[in-house]
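note to self: dont lose this again. the chain is below, predicted strucutre after it. 577 aa total, dont forget to put it in the shared folder this time
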Amino acid sequence: MPSIKKAFILALVGLLLFALWPTPSSHAARITRLTLLDAEYKQVSYLIAGMKYYVLGESDKASSTSVEGLKLEYSTDNGSTWLILPIAGYDLYRGQYVFLPIDPNLVSAKFRMSAYFDPVIGSKTYSEIAVGPYPILQPGDISDFTATPNPDGSVTLKWNDNSNMESYYEITRSGPDGDKTFYVKDTMEHIGPLSYRDDRTNTLKRTIYVYKVTPVIDRYALPENIWPGDVWSIVKTSRELIVADQTDIRFNPPVAKPDAILDLDTPISQVIKWDILKEIDFTIGDVEKKPVTGVKLDREYLTLKPGGSETLTATVSPSDAANTKVKWESSNGQIAEVDGSGKVTAKSPGAAIVSATTEMGNLKAVCLVYVEPAEAPQPQLPPAAEAPNPDPADPPAADFRDIAGHKLSGEISEAVTMGVVFGYSDGTFRPDASVTRAEFASMIVRALKPESEGDPLAFKDEAQIGRWAEPAVRKAVKLGIIKGGSDGLFRPNAKITRAEMIAMVIRASGIPEEAGKKTGFTDDGAIPNWARFAVSKAEETGIIIVGGLPEGKFAPQAPATRADAASAIVRMLKLGK
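---
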């Protein structure tokens, strides 16, 4: 009896010490990876300003850990200062995307994601991860273009090169002697002033020429809305007026439209075949006035909410040019529209490029317009791991308020009824949320209900597999459903891609592996070789259907959603019936 009493006292003292003794704060979570992907959802080694890129952040946070103050930033000075990178919008299957501003000063950038993680037990911690620097390719238009006559009859062209993408510049001169072409070569990776002296003009008499300068980008594919345009200028050479000039330059009548000039015996009659001159408000008198040399907007980028508006101001140089009118245009009027005075009105979330182009010279300035949702979203990390012991109070599938009308609502209901997936206690299923590799392993093992206890794990990142998921991962390994990467990692907290998900489903189905066939998906070439058999067999058996995604794509590298996972598993189970 005394020994029992003594043991009880010691145990009580131990509990008191444990309660009072300070414990080290537990590791809340950290951001494990930050990846930039292009429109095809492939990793990039450089970025092009004005084009869409997806930002994928990953963390090892537990389901009970909350995230606060999540930020996405970029730096142009190797991390000395950081600027907020606005989220331009979201795609259903690929997540958030961004645009980098078209700015000739932005040629390199690092990217950083940061957040605070607040666990239920332990202290709040801060985590950040930076990647880069990435080279930034700029497709900016030519600015500050001038064509200046020299006393000897030659002409000097000068302009500011705002793109580091063009292989060379092509110069076309139209005049009495027809069209002539010249080149300024090796301009890729160059940004700044350029010039060309045309000394092959007619130096014996005064002549009118039209010069067009075209940046030639032949190594990169660009959408039409950000492709640099041509610029042009009209110049009259500066020779002392001699008798011979009287027969070549006739400025009567002093004001004439291009179509009328066709009947005049002047050098312009040969130039007018150029379509661009038929689209401008050009008169003979304009040759005697100052040409337009540039245009700038008061804003390079603008952030609005739907329904909001702001007016951009275009400044044409010089202010006393022959024609200072500009044409306003939006690359996507459904996101942001612009009227003839430069007033931009936000219509729906996304990003659009608003441009002001001069009628004379075709010089252009652009502003990148971001339209945020009514409540601006924060960059998102992968969702918390699905709870291993769902709340018994979770509503049945039929009561989920966010699957009504969803194209996969039938399979979602079946999957919930079978205990493959679960809803959330707030009455939602969240069909478009992503799924981690550990979560999907748990789902598919719950569907198969194997009796085996599973094999020991040998993944290098085994410690990152939550205890709630470890039994399922062991069983999935034993069944041959899970195979780690060539680097020996399982990456339990990474979002599972559609290719990875279908590969696991087909392995679980027991279908014997054979050579993969060409599929009916429009992005068949993007399907990795290791997943080709699984994807082709899933298409053949109806586990996935061509046309399920926009444009008939499979999107192998896109994150799978909870709805995708439920549907694929339910359809796989029906194959054996």
